[in-house]
Amino acid sequence: YSRSLVQASALGATVTIVVGSGGSAGGAGSDGGDGGQSSFGSFAIAPGGSGGTSNMPSGTSLNTAQGIAGPSAGSGDFAMGGGASGSAIRLDGNSAMAGFGGTSFLGLGGLGRTTQGSGLGPRGFGAGAGGGLSTGSSVNGGGGGDGRVIIHLYG
Questions:
Q1: Is pLDDT of 1 > 90?
Q2: What 8-state DSSP symbol labels residue 7?
Q3: Residue 106, Cα to own-chain centre: how many angstroms?
Q4: Are residues 131 and 141 in contact, defined by beta-carbon separation less than 8 angstroms?
């Protein structure tokens, strides 16, 4: 998340606005794609997060898999990084929980599944999807949420 107060006199004739796309869903057994950076010129820049990892090995015994760190803060008058994703746990061949998606200032990460199925998408903007959960057949992850650029004009 990034926010800046910019004087109108500091703006040029045009300012490039980029809305970062959400990271692509990972295929069965493959990592998800990274989210894109959002920006308002060089005044406010918010980096996208890393794609989720497919790091739980196959098996039926107790195991855990670490989530990933959220993105670092970008630049602007006020900037903060995003939230980390949740870890996954497998108790046995039929009981497990996938990791939840990372949060953003404007969105909530997708739910971590406890039943077989693809990763669940986030709510809002800029958050990550929850991981997919397989107890047999292969499943895909979920796609991350697109970024957002909000501009308020005064005067």
A1: yes
A2: -
A3: 11
A4: yes
Using alpha carbons, select from 1, 23, 154, 151 the residue that is nearest to residue 72: 1
Amino acid at the residue 77: D
List 46's β-bridge partners, or say none.
38
Please give the full DSSP string across 75-137, using - where no structure is assigned.
Answer: BSSEE-PPPPPPPEEE-SSS-EEPPPPPPBTTEEPPPPPSSSBPPPPPEESSPPPPPPB-SSS
Q: Which two tokens stand for residue 1?
A: 């998340």
Q: What tokens were used for 85?
A: 């994703």
> Rounded CA gap, 82 and 84, in Å?
7
Query: What does the DSSP 8-state code read for residue 6?
Result: -
User: pLDDT, tens digit, for every residue of 20-46?
Assistant: 999 999 988 889 999 999 999 999 999
Phi, psi of 8 (to 5 degrees): -60, -35
Structure tokens at 100: 């939840």
| Whether the model pTM is above 0.85 | yes
Q: 115-154, pLDDT tens digit by residue?
A: 999 999 999 999 999 999 998 888 999 999 999 999 987 7
Nearest Cα neighbor of 1 from 27, 41, 38 is 38
